[in-house]
Amino acid sequence: MSFVQEFKSFAMKGNVVDMAVGIIIGAAFGKIVSSFVGDVVMPPLGLLIGGVDFSDLAVILKPAQGDAPAVVLAYGKFIQTVFDFLIVAFAIFMAVKMMNKLRKHEEVKPAAPPAPTKEEVLLTEIRDILKEQRSPVIDTKPPL
Question: Which Pfam family is one of those matched by this entry (predicted)?
């Protein structure tokens, strides 16, 4: 098999195509979630917490010298990113929880009882034969 044919075979497998579609949809969904958090959730939350923005927190390790920029440890951006992640994660959790609530739960059908084993069938037949062979019920009253 040539390299081109092998690559074509790999690229056209169902799981590779499914993964590509998932990545593309995931990227688009990521934009929706980012917009939801940035444009809908964060403004009221910013009002509640007093407009705190951690992005500006930093430590200057080495000041700027001439054309060389300053070396800055921008730990505030990291804190803000973690804070944003927690908000996004919570928003997604709530959306999934709501979707699961709206989804109708499929009723689980009870499994059919298992068929009797050969031994059970034979024992049932023996029992039925013994019932047929029994004598009729004898009257146990004493004679008068």
Answer: MscL
